[in-house]
Amino acid sequence: AATLREAADAKGKFIGTAVADHRLSDSRYNNIAANEFNSVTAENVMKWDSIQPSRGSFNFAAGDRLVDFAQANGQQVYGHTLVWHSQLPSWVSNGGFNATELNTIMTTHITEVMNHYEGDVEYWDVVNEVFNEDGTLRQSVFQQTIGQSYIANAFRAADAADPNAKLCINDYNVEGDNAKSDGLYNLVQSLLGQGVPIDCVGLQSHFILDQIPSTLQANMQRFAALGLEVNITELDIRINMPADSAELQRQATQFGNVVSACLAVSACQGVTVWGFGDADSWVPGVFPGQGAACLYDDNYNAKPSYNGVLTAL
Ligand code: XIL
């Protein structure tokens, strides 16, 4: 295949990227986003602080641009994200609401956003990063105010808003078999037992070079055995800078191994990378001294990692 998306199409899978709205005006960026991927995720513009920065005022313009881009290029849109403790405006996090009020605010947000994008967005990360590393639930404002039932409430509201969207729970450090992924497994198993409409698990997969969990595929398989789709949603593999050529070669192999793990599990419908160009990646800003985590270098030249993905697809 000549492009990642051609290869993925031939397998019936998606290969996606996070897209930064403000980068679409750069033709090199725009061309790669359009030509190499058959799925797109908004890197930021569908988050709560972007869409509902103050109560009752909804800004869909930037998200709509991404939907237009996707439709112009025949791409799926992966919605990210409805309920998350981060990039949550302070009117929500510090509003002092009681459980009933916050539940109404949460379900209103879900309903308004999903109704707006109904038919245009195939998947939604309904809840994002709800776990602590030990597998207990994170003390977000939603958990503290509403209690654990906020998660079931969110999925039920999402299903009512758009019955055709696939509804996902997404997190990081849940890619291998560990306490956090056990917590996730136990939660989704219990939600399914209660009839809560949940369709998919997203493994973010913000990896470190040479530290891809060896249990990735087996962990995906156990979620699949619950009847859920399980996707790789935010893949990058960061390297201590500067990265040398041996490291870039190992990175290529490891990107390929992650894609191969997805292809080996029939319930995995695809892999999304969290940006494709090293220059645009969130990694250097959040993990000082680390970078080179993507498929293209700072000048949008394909790296060995690009070929690692292409070969694996
Ligand atoms: C990151 C974006 O890449 C940054 O631009 C932003 O400043 C912060 O959020 N997990 C997630 C993503 O679910 O939404 C995060 O994206 C990366 C970690």
TrEMBL record:
The active site is at 234 (nucleophile). The keyword Translocase does not apply. Belongs to the glycosyl hydrolase 10 (cellulase F) family. Keywords: Carbohydrate metabolism, Glycosidase, Hydrolase, Polysaccharide degradation, Signal, Xylan degradation. This is Beta-xylanase. The keyword Signal applies. Residues 1-312 form the GH10 domain. Its EC number is 3.2.1.8. The chain holds residues 32 to 344 of 462 of the full protein. It catalyses: Endohydrolysis of (1->4)-beta-D-xylosidic linkages in xylans. It comes from the Bacteria.
